[in-house]
Amino acid sequence: MKSCPCRSGLDYDVCCGPVIEGTIWPQTAEALMRSRYTAFALRKVAWLKESLWPKYQKTLDMPGLTEFAHSRQWVGLDILKVEQGGAEDTTGMVLFVARALESGAVREHREASLFRKKKGHWYYVMAVAEDQAKSLLDH
């Protein structure tokens, strides 16, 4: 068994694996965030497109996204804060820090991500400024 890259403490096969492979859809914004990090770590870029807010999928730069995922060795994820984003919510925000080895140095990426639910499925919408996240949740 292989530990999930999202650092949930669960095995990949029961954590992000079924999400990325398309057998289940995440029930919370945090679960979607974790699966997206894992998709970067395992270079499963198709899931990154599929889990992106539908209106943004058509203009997604897949070659650029693929290069971004492949140019780093993803080494850690810490979820710092979650607002809303539960199974009964329609919006959510996840504040996280992702770490990647790039050009011989570990770099941190801190982001507040906005998520929205459409037809029962959570999607990543965009990165937002931490101080704006709360005001965007209910819009």
Automatic annotation (TrEMBL):
Where would I find the YchJ-like middle NTF2-like domain in this sequence? Answer: 28-126
Q: What name does the UniProt record give this protein?
A: SEC-C motif-containing protein
Q: Which Pfam families match?
A: YchJ_M-like (PF17775)
Q: Which InterPro entries match?
A: NTF2-like_dom_sf, YchJ-like_M
Top-level taxon = Bacteria
